[in-house]
């Protein structure tokens, strides 16, 4: 199934990626090559096949409700690109 | 022979017998780094000062008779594993200055084992690639031919080992990223069973496929490294609580009476004739060692690239959403509001291949496409796993080429992503099924480029891989060359 | 045209576990911003979630309490979207395979009961907090709340009025609090509600266009918001317009709903199974273990109180409002055998004093046994009802036993008829004028004599006896 320029715009918005105009053309055609290749999967009969979501058959991996020491807010903010006091700071959403 | 040219097991012996010290070994390694790093570029971050501190600490421990599996041995880590206090970049601009406040579980284990950390090795950005050409920090070159790529994404981990810039290293393998560079660089590389080694601290690319594994100079070293890193971790819900055998006990046992499956779908048009020839010699060798080879079929092999390139990018698109410039990592100063901040930071922070895969993944999961792409791929994946389950009913291990070609030229496949993806066709299936695989050197091309042989085993039967790979290594007598640098 | 509202409610309740759902950080409210955090809930590279077993236990408990079917196998999915308070860029939730489905809750409404269906219950992690700066073009992120465990309870669109909506909400609330899995604090955000509401012509089967309502942070606001929205939609439809499918925010100060200004189109959440978490398999044994921990629930308790103790539904409602009050009541009844009297004392005096002192019933200085004893002392005539009020005050202040207080203060009721006759006789002697008035027919003077007797006996005279003896003496004189 081919992907259109509009769909590329939609997907890049969903993924929060800014694509330059020149990039959009290149990405669209590269994506199309790849997606076209994926179509071979339609040849496989998968009726009644349960999708494989894990490579292991584990279940019930739990931990107990016991408090572990936190790293503290200094460490939490150490890599922050912008902060103010104890908070991470980000630009506001413009309505 | 230089100390940096020796293996873990050789050095351990020397350390124990007092013939050398960790500081001496570490000096030898850093001298080598000084001599060749400019040509190869194995490392993103070199940890010289702390390495010598650790080496001194190791020497004291050895004196006190207090040694672990790797005490005093210089090890390199792919820059995708979090190291506390040391930047971890994943080969990306977006994490260029990220300093994790915690250690991965495997790093903790190696520390406990007494390892000396040499540095963080170069890699394809976020492990997405097969040539180590997409790193923000520059390419890594194949020591056997500096105009060629070393493979990827654990390119630096492979080159550092073969160029003696470390004694052994850790890489990560999502679609072949340990085994393929190991093959193209002439070292041993193992991808453990999914769930065998903890992923806690491994920056996620495709969560249901990623595994950490060792790259080493021989199979015995691989076994030692596996002993050090394998095992259940309660911090990783996908970590399996299965006992870890002593892998070194399987080194140089024979394979008399074993059945080795040769999958017909792996011997197709498009394989380089020299690779094919080397693998056929290896098959004869295995038969000489007492193994019986049988043809098997893994019927869904042809779909592995398509399946992988739906599932891995889908999971990656979600795993990489956290790189949004809010709490850490690169943030663009140009955005006027939140939306622009997100879009510009990620656009500037990620390279093209990462963006491409995020786009494919986002598309595959999006409304209207989920069933056709992600769900369908997951179903075909189940059929591929079933193929292996069936195959292992009739054989102990499976033998295949590790890669379809030897190392290609820098830049050769950068314009055709699909061509690049096909490089992984022999290694992808193991990640999709979750089974372990190992790549061992099996010869050289006429041009002197290494060729790799791959063995695959059932879930949690890494010891079988150690057994056959070490037996092959011993009996095949492949010439041990060193790259000329 | 008569329209009927169709209302469905989505409740998010924070679970009272000590730690977050996927990491060991504390869930304690009120910590300094970003101090209850770790690499996992900060969404740092390389981290992995591990499920808190208590969260599953609590969810199973709630599911059973509201008659849901537990999905023996259930699993987690990622809900992908970008927002600064969502560290990983996705929320771990349950989508295709929730823990429970298909239950119900009976709501007491208008003297009867209405059954509201429950579509599903699932577990998920909470996001952090985003605070907007009034003056700067900045927002601030606090991730203490990121990773706190939530259960989401989705009702069927079975409610047909704002009363039913609030009634349902209160029922869910009291069950959650009764089970001790949520503290139900709407102001602090540990119990949140969103509504889906549409109108359709009465008798129609098909649903109308619905709007989603958010930002209602109290029961009263839920009621007001629903009422307003019903009226608003009615107005739109009656003027020939169409209701727009949108999300609207309740504005408490203006009493209206506004459309949310965010231009985000319907989110494409790209749900897929979370590869970092393995499925949950709930065994029969586990379900049985949890079943044993479920206490008698409020509705059953209320009904039983009315039935067993023969008290009015209003009393039952007050007494069963919390497990602690209900237990206090039943202990008191056990030791006194007087359900209605115990109810009066608890509803009035105990709860009243607790409110004044801002105390919890667990910290009541008067124990159920002590209260029961006091009740028995009234019943056997040792003290009068009026004196008892005095005794109770002392009990509350000092925590002493009633008998002790009565003896210390000499408050034992005078029931010795001889003594009373003497006292009454003295009063009558000392008040000849009033005696004359009474004889003349002024009944009111009787009260004056009673007052005088009480004064003379310092309130300790048994009022009934005083009445009898006084009447006798007056008729004799």
Which descriptors would you attach to this protein?
heterotrimer; A: 95 residues; alpha+beta; two-stranded antiparallel sheet; flat; B: 485 residues; alpha/beta; eleven-stranded mixed β-sheet; 38% helix; 13% strand; globular
The proportion of strand residues of chain B reads: 5-15%
Task: Kindly name the structural category of chain B.
Answer: alpha/beta
Q: What is the overall number of helices of chain A? A: 3
Q: What amount of the residues of chain A lies in strands? A: 5-15%
Residues in helix, % of chain B: 25-40%
Low-confidence runs of at least 5 consecutive residues of chain A: none
Quick overview:
Chain A is α+β, with helices and mostly antiparallel strands and 95 residues long. Helix content of chain A is 36%, strand content 9%. Chain A has helices at residues 5-14, 21-38, 72-77; strands spanning 62-63, 83-84, 87-91.
Can you walk through the features of this model?
The complex is a heterotrimer of chains A (95), B (485) and C (477). Chain A is an alpha+beta fold. A two-stranded antiparallel sheet of chain A has the order 2-3. Chain A is built from three helices and three strands; from the N terminus they run ααβαββ. Chain A is flat, with a radius of gyration of 23 Å. In chain A, a hairpin with a 2-residue loop joins strand 2 and strand 3. The longest helix of chain A is centred in the first third of the chain and has 18 residues. Chain B has 485 residues and is α/β, with parallel strands linked by helices. Chain B is built from 15 helices and eleven strands. In chain B, strands 1-3-2-4-6-5-10-11-9-7-8 form an eleven-stranded mixed sheet, sandwiched between helices. In chain B, helix 2 packs antiparallel against helix 3, helix 9 crosses helix 11 and helix 9 packs across helix 12. The radius of gyration of chain B is 21 Å and the shape is globular. Chain B starts with 7 loop residues before the first helix and ends in a 9-residue tail after the last helix. With 477 residues, chain C is of the alpha+beta class. Chain C has a nine-stranded mixed sheet. A three-stranded antiparallel sheet of chain C has the order 6-5-16, with no helix packed on it. Chain C has a two-stranded antiparallel ribbon with strand order 4-17. In chain C, strand 13, helix 3 and strand 14 form a beta-alpha-beta unit. In chain C, helix 5 crosses helix 6, helix 7 crosses helix 8 and helix 12 packs across helix 14. Chains in contact: A-B, A-C, B-C. At the B-C interface, helix 9 of B face loops of C.
